[in-house]
Design goal:
four-stranded antiparallel sheet
């Protein structure tokens, strides 16, 4: 994260660089696909003054732009089958989590809308929930789970006067792990899911 340009790269199990991905750019939130063959990342466009989601395929050395809206599109995550992605789309007065196909097509599905800034963190392995945080007007972050069926009413996970972030579902879907500064320094916490 930050304003300086960097190049995404791929390392092997010993930490040696296997490949460089694309040209240097201001990148954020790179996520590897479930099959390990693609990467989605937020890449800043200095000319347009915004951020978009890009997909990179290291084996084929291909880089594909996935979003083109004038809003800031950030924080991409993969669906467990790797066919869809979800991300935050933030513009003046319009703060949403949307999903769309990674393989083509432009149709977006709005999953959540808020007056606060949402940021998707993880998609449960059963495909039924998205873990996200909300940044309030006071810049405090809290964690919520968005059910993708039923009334789709968000479920609070960690909502306190402290900051919570960087969360993931456990592979069996029974836990959510996240960082919080509740103790005065960021430490890892785990909560059962569902609570």
């Amino acid at each position: 994260r930050g304003s300086s340009a960097a190049r995404l790269g791929e390392l092997d199990g010993q930490g040696k660089e296997r490949a460089r991905l694309g040209e240097p750019a201001t990148c954020d939130r790179a996520r590897l696909s479930p099959d390990g063959k693609k990467i989605v990342a937020t890449i800043q466009d200095p000319a347009a003054g915004g951020a978009d989601i890009w997909a990179l395929e290291p084996e084929r050395n291909v880089k594909t732009r996935l979003t083109f809206a004038p809003s800031e599109e950030t924080s991409p995550i993969w669906s467990p089958d790797g066919k869809r992605g979800a991300f935050a789309a933030v513009a003046k007065g319009d703060r949403r989590i949307v999903a769309r196909s990674v393989g083509g097509g432009t149709a977006e599905q709005e999953l959540f809308k808020s007056s606060d800034v949402p940021s998707p963190e993880d998609w449960s392995w059963d495909g039924q929930h998205i873990l996200f945080n909300l940044v309030s007007g006071t810049q405090k972050t809290d964690f919520w789970v968005l059910p993708l069926s039923g009334d789709r009413k968000p479920i609070p996970v960690a909502t306190s006067e402290f900051d919570e972030g960087w969360g993931f579902f456990s592979p069996d879907g029974k836990w959510i792990v996240y960082l919080s500064n509740e103790s005065g320094a960021y430490q890892a916490y785990a909560v059962r899911f569902p609570r």
